[in-house]
């Protein structure tokens, strides 16, 4: 029996189906390392300082894999205050061919 090629109908259908699968990207703006006692005392309106400055790059993850870095910006013409990420670096995730 002959093997199917990667350009066959089944592969094309699979590629089209994958195009429709949503993924979740997490944007990390920084980390905080408070003492537990300080975290337990925090109240609404409290401030939790992060390890980054407001103009530092943010990191984009799929699961625990870093995929890109970028900068936060406000979306023009959208809801007031809505933010987005402008990509400044895309990580090469292909390892070893």
From TrEMBL:
InterPro entries: FliN-like_C, FliN_T3SS_HrcQb, SpoA-like_sf. One of its GO terms (biological process) is bacterial-type flagellum-dependent cell motility. GO terms for cellular component: bacterial-type flagellum basal body. Belongs to the FliN/MopA/SpaO family. Residues 17-91 form the Flagellar motor switch protein FliN-like C-terminal domain. This is Flagellar motor switch protein FliN/FliY. It comes from the Bacteria. The keyword Ligase does not apply. Keywords: Cell projection, Cilium, Flagellum. One of its GO terms (molecular function) is cytoskeletal motor activity.
